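Rather than argue in generalities, we have chosen a single entry, letters for residues, whole numbers for local backbone shapes, without further comment.
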Amino acid sequence: MQQEVNSICNEITRIAYDTTYGGAQILNGANNGLINQEGNLRIHVGAQANCVVDIKLDIAFSMSALHAYIGGLTDGGYDSVNQAFDISSRENAEKVIAGIDDYIRYVDSKRAELGAVSNRFDSTLRNQDNIHENQSFSRSQIRDSDYAEETSRYIQNNTMTNASTQILVQANARPEIVAALLS
């Protein structure tokens, strides 16, 4: 059992160190250029330089960092040097179980925070889709309006040209009519 517990602890730490975004580790607590002055994880999410989202993560997601943050298992059951739980005795196993309950509560609160960030991402994406759709619709209406305006000008100019032609025909025909009447 102890070997399985150690293996699970090592796997949690491995996942924290292997989780990357944009090539940078985001869960191991290392300041890899993604942490801003306020201590928030800053993630770039868009095409423009100012499209960033700040996520407040208090600690790294390794077993030792979780243990240090939560402060659980202080009087036995957790070996922070080896990042393992000691369940060799009943007393230590009970402390480990109590500590795991604290870990679960903490992880649940972080999941809620990350869920809120995910909802912000979804909302931002929906908003960007709406903006794109509205811009496309506006461009289409402007093109339709420009086409209608140009068509109206064309018809107006064509009517003026036809009227001018008819006036010239009438003006040229009058001397012949007058000559025919006089003869």
